[in-house]
Amino acid sequence: MTEEVTEVAERPGPIDDGDVRTPPLRPGGYDPADYAGYVLRSAAETGVSPLLLMGVLHNEAYKPHHPLLERLWQWWKPGASFGVANMHRATFEQVRRAHDLDGRWEDLRDDPAFAVHAAALHLTDLDRRLPERRTRRYTRDELLALGYNAGERNMRAFARGVPPGPMARSYLRRLRLNRHRAAQALAAGGDSHGPRPRGSR
Predict the structure, then answer these.
(1) Phi, psi values for residue 117, rounded to 5°
(2) Nearest CA-CA partner of 147 in 137, 138, 156
(3) pLDDT at 69
(4) Which residues of the chain have pLDDT under 50?
(5) Which of 4, 75, 116, 141 could crosslink 52 through cysteines, CB 3.0-4.6 Å?
């Protein structure tokens, strides 16, 4: 499924909860590159492009991801998304059922490794639902990113040539702009993987 392959090292052992780095509380202190190891591991396990997965993390880095701030955000906006990959509850529940995950939606805000892994699984599900015949205007990874942002139905419409709306176009533009940063983060984090997410089997 990947158009570009990043070489990945051997898989590490089981997760040690002490190794899971919590996103910082300080605004502007969060960097998706801190989770390159988790991205590489989940990409290797799911077959998703690591560059796509890291690009999604960069696109979703527009708000603070510290667990306390996400709890406060949810108190103000109950339907908010959780985790470093900003996943909504309905999407997570689809992924959880499809892949028999042990974790809960609330775990996404407290466990970045689990959030990255859930995002990777969701991208693989979207990939299976891409139409065989599709427009050449977008790469496969771009369509999957659009699906992550706008949903499967919209992704399939974009693949058929329906023009994306302003929000989807903005998401795609940021994905393209973040491509170099995402590649740099993967190159820097390519020597080691993060531990296995606690909610995965």
Answers:
(1) -65, -40
(2) 156
(3) 66
(4) 1-18, 191-201
(5) 141
Q: What are the Cα distances from residue 132, in Å, to 101, 170, 186?
A: 28, 25, 29
159: its two tokens: 């693949």
pLDDT (0 to 100) of residue 23: 63
- H-assigned helices in 10-139: 36-46, 50-59, 67-76, 89-99, 107-110, 112-128
Query: What pTM does this model have?
Result: 0.80
Give the separation between CA 8 and CA 191, rounded to whole angstroms: 8
Place of tokens 């990939």: 127
**Rounded to an integer, what distance in angstroms lies between the CA atom of residue 57 and that of residue 151?**
16
pLDDT in tens, 167-193: 999 999 999 999 999 999 999 875 444
Q: What are phi and psi of 13, to 5 degrees?
A: -80, -170
Please give the structure tokens belonging to residue 70: 């996400």
CB atoms within 10 A of CB 71: 14
Instruction: Give the model's pLDDT for residue 175.
Output: 97
What angle, 0 to 180 degrees and rounded to 10, lies between the N-to-C axes of helices 50-59 and 112-128?
A: 120
Q: Please, which residues bridge with residue 87 across strands? A: 82
Helix (H) or strand (E) holding 81: none
Q: Is the dihedral of CA 18, 20, 24, 25 positive or negative?
A: negative
Look at residues 149, 135, 161, 113 and name the one whose alpha carbon lies nearest to residue 14.
113
